[in-house]
User: Fold Magnesium and cobalt transporter from Labilibaculum antarcticum.
Amino acid sequence: MIEIYYKNNDVRKYKSIDEVEYLPDNIFSVRFIDFLNSDLELISEKFDLDLTSFSKKEDIEISSHYIESPDQLSLNFTIPSYSSSNFFEEKDIYILIKNEIVFTFLSPDIENILNHLTQSIYNFKNTKIDTYHQLFVFQIGVISDYYADIVELISKKIRDLFKNILKSEQFKEKDLDYIAELRFNNLLIRESLSEFQRILLLLKKSFKKTDNAFIKISEELKDLTVIADYLQYNFSRLDDLHGNINSKIELEQNKIFKILTIITVCISLPTLIAGVYGMNFKYMPELDWGFGYPITLLILILSFIIPLIYFKRKKWF
Assistant:
């Protein structure tokens, strides 16, 4: 789907590129939602765009994610989004500026998330946007707010898990798996945030210090630095959680080993006595005793109970 925002505040939606009548002088912004790679060539011809950045999204060099030419600026980066499971998935965002028009390429789920965030935080209908630069930095601000939201979500999950772990006396393998999921999601956010920060630093240099866009991007970079600090706090909390669980697991194992040791000692003495009387010697005086059997049973019982009393006084259990 294609959404075109005109300078007269008119918004039109098109299902196919062929339906679009492209008049650059009247257009403010163009958004491509759920586009296909097979559409890129047609989009490039229709809107006179250089889309080489789409083929460089896997490159790690910042020069592949921030491309500035005399007539076009191209940004591409990924932001994390929850999949059907507890794991985040990386979703691509492409923003191009040409002929004073902001072109944005989004997946449907990211479009829905950013729209919902815009409606819940900003009074967008009453927000006055006069230039494409204002629209562009507004989109940058929404994305920064999205990072803040997902980091807060991860932080809340970690705090809730921490409370449950402190109260719990038994731990399951799924607890460690959940910590691994949170660590993976936190790592994805940090990588994505770092990429976004590098792009904004380069973008900041393209504006004059007196420009509102320069000031706005500088503010967003400060906010992103705070968000990055929270991400590092999350890693520290997860390390503490992992260490706490491992320590408690070791304590549980020590208790088990203590119990096994007590049982082994308590059984070994009766086993020793029974082993002695199980020997096939010809002359064993106790065999002729009238009370030999009950006395032996009593000794066996006492040899089991006495070590139990000893370990109980030592508070081993």
The first strand starts at residue 2 and ends at 6. The mean pLDDT is 80. The longest helix spans residues 212-277. The chain is about 55% helix and 15% strand.
